[in-house]
Amino acid sequence: MDKVGYYVKFRTQAGQRDALAGLLLQAADHARDAPGCELYVVNTASGEDDVVWVTEIWRSAADHTASLSADGAGELIGQALPLLAGPPERIDLRPLGGAGLPG
Amino acid sequence: MDKVGYYVKFRTQAGQRDALAGLLLQAADHARDAPGCELYVVNTASGEDDVVWVTEIWRSAADHTASLSADGAGELIGQALPLLAGPPERIDLRPLGGAGLPG
Hints:
- The structure is a homodimer.
- By secondary structure, chain A is an alpha+beta fold.
- Chain A is built from three helices and four strands, in the order E-H-E-E-H-H-E.
- A four-stranded antiparallel sheet of chain A has the order 2-3-1-4.
- In chain A, strand 2 (37-45) and strand 3 (48-58) form a beta hairpin.
């Protein structure tokens, strides 16, 4: 597989977690139709009240990059930024295989 | 959703990453048939030579717990433990929704 994966950790201003999660679920709706998106899941984290994690798998890094400039992405990013307490942290992964993925 | 998600980070003894990944891909084959397993993906990490991350989503915490005592799980755990440099770290998640999941 040449897939790429990301765990993206967003830390929000106090009390803004659910608002951010709502925006990221809108982003997931866009991702669902984006070329090469295999997984885009929005999560809260046990024991961390102001954290949202997004789990992503894309067919290629190029597909992921293209999604960031797709219609609507800039508007969602603009709405999300004021909710954050700092820049997102990203763990870059190379999926080797497993269960539950297409292909 | 009452789903649960996990990011599980395994750090191996030097040079044992691919051996561990192979065992975890066998675990993924078991997970594929386990009740309630929605995702079990084995990943390497950019820039960390001795790390394997597993991304899991289960229908419930009970389904995940049951899988750990399923046939074959103990044997794989026994083979994996000597490859590790320390105990796995786990980030516990509550998936809210997104793209690419069943249901």
